[in-house]
Amino acid sequence: MRRGLAFIMILMLLLGLSGCAGKQEPAGDSTSIVVGFSQLGAESSWRIANTASMEQAAKEAGYGLMMENANQKQEKQIDAIRSFIAYRVDVIVFSPIVETGWDNVLTEAKQAGIPVILMDRMIETQDDSLYTAYIGADFYAEGRRAGEYLVRKADATGAEHLNIVEICGTTDSTPMRDRQRGFMDVIGADPRFTVIASISGDFLRSKGEECMTDLLARFGADGIDVLYSHNDSMTLGALDVMEKAGVRPGRDILVISVDGEAEAVRALKDGRINCIVQCTPALGGSVMALVQGLVNNRSIPRVSHPVEAVFSDFDDLTDPALEGF
Ligand code: AHR
Q1: From the CA of 111, how far away is ligand 1's center (Å)?
Q2: Is pLDDT at 23 greater than 70 in this prediction?
Q3: Which residues line ligand 1 (CB under 6 A)?
Q4: In what order do the strands lie in the sheet with 275-278?
Q5: Ligand 1 center from residue 173 Cα (angstroms)
Q6: Which residues make Cβ contacts (< 8 Å) with residue 71, sequence separation at least 6?
């Protein structure tokens, strides 16, 4: 994606500025560098594209990648990090499934002198020294963008009151918490909007289907004006259920989603989704740039966010750059 590439270039520039500006450094002895990567699962197209991005970028950088997929289990992520410590990898990268419960294992990594990069999701800790850097989306900004789209749509259509249902991502994960908080900070005080239900779909398409079935049974199609879903996989599941029930998504129910996977982008172009807040999975190149900074003993940015956009029915959707992943 062009935006992903732009982000990588900006990050490379930042790394250069924060360290030895103007000098081209070697990648260290890249053949002997090993990155331990704990991926949290394969719950969505986003996650699958993110894993592929990490594998590709490690290959291009010439780094060995020890990857463990935790299949949505925090215990498995903790075990994977312990195995990376035992192997004495050079850098640990991990995408924490939830925010809490990492202090012990990260203390062990710190005591072993192995730097940790958090990729995609944050942790909650009193001890900021347990990780060196975070790289991933600004989920709070994404939630705000979803809310801002809704306000703009309500203004444009003159809607007086809208009932919103929210299908959330994994409980206590960073994107779930921050996409909800950002959205509510924009629409919460506006009397035109009421969130009538907020339920967890765990970022899974199958659970998106289950959630929408439940929501239609509880409120009926006439009782729901807006679906705000925290990712495209759940949204696509919800769309299937709506259509089977004779409801026209995008028309009878306004649909706001997050990510930008190809199938969802097609649904946006077909008018079945009204708005997609972009969340890019193409983080691998930027992660490897941070690893390179660490192995060359340069200072690296503590927090990096990719540049992300919003695509909606207010835009020209024929833009060929809008293809999804
Ligand atoms: O943490 C990023 C989120 O996780 C993506 O939006 C979602 O699709 C994924 O499962």
Answers
A1: 31
A2: no
A3: 43-44, 46-47, 120-121, 175, 203, 231, 233, 258-259, 279
A4: 193-200, 162-168, 226-229, 254-259, 275-278, 310-312
A5: 10
A6: 41, 42
Kindly give the number of the ligand 1 atom that is closest to the alpha carbon of 173: 1
| Helix residue spans in 31-138 (DSSP H) | 45-61, 74-87, 103-111
Helix (H) or strand (E) holding 139: helix 139-157
State how far the alpha carbon of 256 is from the alpha carbons of 92, 228, 272, in Å. Answer: 35, 5, 10
DSSP H or E stretch at residue 91:
strand 91-94
Atom of ligand 1 nearest to the CA of 258: 6
| pTM, entire model | 0.90
CA distance 106 to 84: 11
Distance (Å, whole) CA 74 – CA 264: 29
Tell me what percent of the residues of the chain surpass a pLDDT of 70: 90
- At 231, the pLDDT band (50, 70, 90 cuts) reads very high
Cα 178 to ligand 1 centre (Å): 12
Cα gap 123→105, rounded to integer Å: 12
145: CB partners within 8 A, 6+ apart:
182, 277, 310
Query: Measured in angstroms, how far is the CA atom of residue 82 from the centroid of ligand 1?
Result: 24
| Cα–Cα distance for residue pair 267/239, rounded to 1 Å | 9
SS3 225: coil
